[in-house]
């Protein structure tokens, strides 16, 4: 293996032999200062993805960007790589402004992005070929990378012959073969099964700790809290819509890390608490009684909401404790952050559960809902929907005011587009439709794009058009 590492990295490193990556300190590989990123929406308005983003990647550390979908993690990664520009602020690589693709950088993506008509060896050689490395050296370095990443013997195999984990190993080999100064990884384990992702994470950490790869820093995008705690020297927690740093957490647990240790579990629970806490400046418009539809509804169905409430009641009964740990809930339901957090947001918004310091518990209304029959659930949900969800209250109020009790969906869609992108406005309205139908607060005809107080018939839809 020493010969393989020497082939991959023929130049001596700045560290003394045997020193861990953490021995490099004080040098920033990347720095972002007050960075803002906005994209143009189809209607010409700015869609803000990142706002006042401040971060840095130190030499010798693994930094994990942790956040939900919509927090701008992948956008930030591509900006640091020099693939897309910022809208405002300062982006630096080793003290120099980033104004194009950053040299000495390799990326690993969630999708394996292999060329199916090329063998493993040919896929790994591609980056070296682009760098105009001579064929003999190219082959030697590619073989060394394949051996290093544990695919020796599969050089002549095609991607279709490999499992998902093996294909991702090819992705790692392709990244490492160019001797990258920094490795950027965009959720590289999320498309793999649990056992395969665990093995790949462990192998990468071993290569990193033993200095068998030349990389001086790793920046990993993730939405998996346990993965972040397993791998990171430091975790940046990003808020969403727009993305900005909510917390910068050093992880001082020794490697290899024990998932079952109390320190590990405490840190996981602490991060859950941060990610589920409402920002101090945030005001829930439903709770303050203002009728505004500019509240982003989580895109979850009524079946999912009912399932979560029933699961909470079951865990409460089994443990005898009204407060359920969020990590325990996620593990029990086999949910990732992107699965669980929208559900938690929904039941909090509706007043059926509340989150307290990384735990969740049913409210009295939530317990009533769980114990109720179908019609009682509908009636309770209807009351909470109108009282706590401004968009639903708005739709119902418009229908009540109109003499024919009909309203086009476009009316509310247009109002939502004052707050969201066209795509997000559609998602928010879809959620309001699903919840309102369940509660029988209003009905919606998808073919005619018409809201009504009853299931609209053809004549009603024609009357609206007239």
Task: Describe the structure in your own words.
Among the domains are: 2-104 and 179-276, P-loop containing nucleotide triphosphate hydrolases (Rossmann fold); 298-371, Arc Repressor Mutant, subunit A (Orthogonal Bundle). The protein is 44% helix and 18% strand. Helix 1 packs across helix 4 (135-148), helix 10 (302-319) packs across helix 12 (337-349) and helix 10 packs across helix 13. A 6-stranded mixed beta sheet has the order 6-7-8-3-9-10, sandwiched between helices. The protein has a 4-stranded antiparallel beta sheet with strand order 2-1-4-5, with helices on one face. It has helices at 2-8, 73-80, 120-130, 135-148, 164-176, 194-209, 225-231, 262-276, 285-288, 302-319, 326-333, 337-349, 364-371, 374-388, 390-401, 409-416, 422-439, 458-465; strands spanning 28-40, 46-58, 62-66, 88-93, 96-97, 105-108, 182-186, 217-222, 234-239, 244-250, 324-325, 353-356, 359-362, 406-408, 443-445, 450-452. The protein is α/β, with parallel strands linked by helices and 466 residues long. The longest helix has 18 residues, at 302-319. It contains 18 helices and 16 strands.
